[in-house]
Design brief:
The structure is a homodimer.
Chain A lengths: L4 H15 L7 H8 L3 H13 L3 E3 L5 E3 L1 H24 L8 H7 L5 H10 L25 E2 L8 E7 L4 H10 L6 E8 L4 E6 L3 E5 L1 H6 E4 L1
Antiparallel strand pairs in A: 1-2, 3-8, 4-5, 4-8, 5-6, 6-7
Chain A binds a DNA duplex through helix 3.
Amino acid sequence: MKISKTEENYLKAIFSILEKGKPSASTNSISQKMETSAASVTDMVKRLAKKKLAIHESHKGVKLTKEGNKIATMLTRKHRLWEVFLVDKLDFLWDEVHEMAEELEHIQSKEMIDRLDNFLGNPKFDPHGDPIPDADGKFATRQQTPLNEFKVGEKGTVVGVRESSTPFLQYLDQLGLGLGSKIEILEKYEYDNSAKILLNKSKEIVITGKVCLNLFLQK
Amino acid sequence: MKISKTEENYLKAIFSILEKGKPSASTNSISQKMETSAASVTDMVKRLAKKKLAIHESHKGVKLTKEGNKIATMLTRKHRLWEVFLVDKLDFLWDEVHEMAEELEHIQSKEMIDRLDNFLGNPKFDPHGDPIPDADGKFATRQQTPLNEFKVGEKGTVVGVRESSTPFLQYLDQLGLGLGSKIEILEKYEYDNSAKILLNKSKEIVITGKVCLNLFLQK
DNA sequence: AATAATTTTTAGACTAATCTAAAAATATAT
DNA sequence: ATATATTTTTAGATTAGTCTAAAAATTATT
């Protein structure tokens, strides 16, 4: 059965909504992710259901079948491996690679992606710290805590970001914060969740509540 | 102006026909390359003409504009660079890479392809010996002669193939012939253009006229 | 429970890319 | 040069993916 690029993108959108713990993905939430009308979503969801990639009960949202889930997982695998390639081999910055990976993830060959995986040294996480599923679809797990849950005096290493939009990543770059940065909490300002931190044992900076919420660290 | 993947494929098809020295590409020749009906070609050619990528006079075939030519050249550049990547970095065989490169060539980013070029060491020829245009669209040239024009006693090194279909390349592999093979002509059999050759100064083999016609060598 | 607001689906239309069948134009052969 | 064959174009239909506007279903509010 052939699956179009558009269908793949819908599967990914649904997957990303379900990933956040929702029991099913609403038509509206999908239309926002895909930047299309709700009517288009209804049409497409019916097509995915007919192909046994999704389960759709009218007015009750969409889930993925095992097959739909597998396809979305493999798209995620491809996306993240290509991001590693672009950063590690072609020297792009972590905020520059998303769009390119969005295109590259639709390249078919499974053999190619498995070889790419090997070529890159079987990375477990992408340049934003997101886990890369292996060839069987298994995601690596990792002990990680958002910075806002840290207490004064605690230390940790940045291992991921909750949001990987270009502006946010560029802002982190400006601050000198990236994957691998060592952090110690010096002070916390509860009124807006901001904090003063010691960065890489050398520089004191103040970061906003938004940043605290979106940084994942390993203790 | 946005150019669809389909339009890109038509541009490439037209380009490849014109490349063989034809003054213009006929509707029929394009429909054969694209494996579509002649009617579809007429439709598409009109669209390309409207976008100023092709020049079309009814019943008189198609040419490419400077812009159309440039796009086709850049597609060729991308295709061939990706082939080098697949063979040099992911260890695919020269007969396995065409289909994957057909997909990869449609990835947009020019910056990415220029970086890929550098990463690969700015190769001038792809795994089949075809020249890779540089970032400005310039093709490398090379002194090359088809094997059938060689005389008994002459020697040369294989640098390219006229046809790069999977069966032909696999047949060459079976014979132990590839880019870089050293050849000396021992005998020529005029009645069917076959020849007996000395391969890599070690092995005597007989090759058919078809092979002689499709191998390019440097003297 | 009835009404209002929101979400989802249906209906009908549009575009890109394709097709078949028929008509028109060009090329070939007697 | 006329008839035949081939090539190209036109006409009309089809499918995937999209849209807007309206109808239907669900959820929230009084």
